[in-house]
TrEMBL record:
CDD domains: ICL_PEPM. GO terms for molecular function: lyase activity. The keyword DNA repair does not apply. PANTHER family: CARBOXYPHOSPHONOENOLPYRUVATE PHOSPHONOMUTASE-LIKE PROTEIN (AFU_ORTHOLOGUE AFUA_5G07230), PHOSPHOENOLPYRUVATE CARBOXYLASE. Transmembrane segments: none annotated. This is 2-Methylisocitrate lyase, PEP mutase family. It comes from Micromonospora echinofusca. The lineage of its organism: Bacteria, Bacillati, Actinomycetota, Actinomycetes, Micromonosporales.
Amino acid sequence: MTTTHQQHAAQLLHSLHRPGTPLVLPNAWDVASARIVADCGAAAVATTSAGVAWSLGAPDGDELDREHALAVVARVAAAVTVPVTADIESGYAADPAGVARTVAGVLAAGAVGVNIEDAPAAGTSALRPVDEQCARIRAAREAADEAGVRLFVNARTDVYLRAVGDPADRSTETLRRAEAYRAAGADGIFVPGVVDAETIGALVAGIDGPVNVLTGPGGLPVATLAALGVARVSLGSAVAGAAYGLVRRAAEEALRSGSYDSLAGAISYGELNALLA
């Protein structure tokens, strides 16, 4: 991707974050899923770190190395014409300098957005201190500025997802982190783990910038989230999980009952082959 093309893609990604008309992202994890998502009319393609890790034989949660993660981002970005934003977990790095290297790699791969989370690893409840996370966000912003690309930095805070602290204090802590992350250079704030309309509405009202929420089966419909002022709706690992769920159902059915009904509704061989031609 040329620098000019990438700059235009970055500007487009920014423009797609409109409160009340959210960017809807059924997250992809490989070229085939990215092509399918784009073919369905998605305005952008987002990767899911969990789906990418699972597809490469690793668990989610800072277990996958930078090189393998970025190789997937590069293949996805080369396979679609819409902007690509990459989920880079907490940066695939131990320090801000490492985050900067990761972001430089994301840009070299052709993507124009990143998610950076403030939880250091799966299985831990504590979040990084705010000043430490801000240093990582600043490093990402500086790396993008140096490359001359207006990278969309989506700062994720896992206050709700990891149930950090007293429930009554989570909104305050989320707003505190959101303000600091925005000041450090984040363009948007991602708050996974929030599912009720009242809390989502309060966070949208209290955050100065586009708000991203995570949803899935049983979650609020896109129309409801739009009415609350959400600017970005992510399906996260849910699509990859559903795909692997189909693998298990089909395998169990074939091995136990000898039937194949679970495979109904599959994309045909010819259609998928043509989509990847």
